[in-house]
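Standup notes, protein team

Yesterday: finished cleaning the Stenotrophomonas capsici set.
Today: LysR family transcriptional regulator structure.
Blockers: none.

Input for LysR family transcriptional regulator:
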Amino acid sequence: MFTLRQLEFAVAVAEEGSFTAAASRCHTVQSGLSHQIARLEEALGARLFERGPRRVRLTSAGEVFVRNARLTLQAAARLQEEMALALGSVRGRINIGQITSLHVVDVPALLATFRAAHPAVDVHLRVGMSEALLADLAEGLLDVALVGVGPQVPLPPQHRLLHEEGLSMVLPPGHPLAALERIPLQALDGQPYATLVPGAGVRRLVDDALLGRDIHPQLQYEVTHGELQRQLVAAGLAVSVTPASMAENMHGVIARPLDEPFQFRTCAVWRADPTPAARALLALLPSPKG
């Protein structure tokens, strides 16, 4: 009734919201893609897309079709990958996600080793916050995610602890709190504060610890990367809280451990049915630290 190429076209239109963008993504001409979508709709007896002047949207039938089309395309790709493995090579595509500030895994070195061992694998990496990466993993958009979370965040059974550590407060040079060897969380009260945006593991760990307690830092700076946190602190604009390993790698600031027993965990998490490429990558990950 339909081909894998037609399924690919339909998924691309749904994800791009445009026939033009979908054709570019699929390396074909728009007229050809539109013709194949029309043939697909005729064969199914249902319209899959509502064509608007600016954007294409899925119909209710289209939502059902595209959801199942993704599963079919994934199954077809998986079949090719498993057959390649049976013949002695790892092939296919791997989608990897990592948190913005990752210090316990040298990702470029890991990927270089992986590419040298498995040059036929198409590797894709993107950076995000832990909660978003875990959501994408659950939806099948990622194969492996390197996340940082507290123990209150549930992880699927298929995960590996890579590192566990406490948290440190990061201070500008000359800050009065730098005289302390360890800093109580209460010291955050009233301090101008720079932190990662919601969705980051360390943000949730600290926010949860502050709930119900009379500790109110002045939240002024919400950023997406630890380097900007460091710059804000080094400029004397704020204090911050980061994983201890991250604080140790920051220059121009002073780091002091918090005296509460925080447990920040860097973990590798993967899908319940890892592909051959995902299994090969996981085999290269370092042993747990901390």
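Follow-up from PR in the comments: The mean pLDDT is 92.
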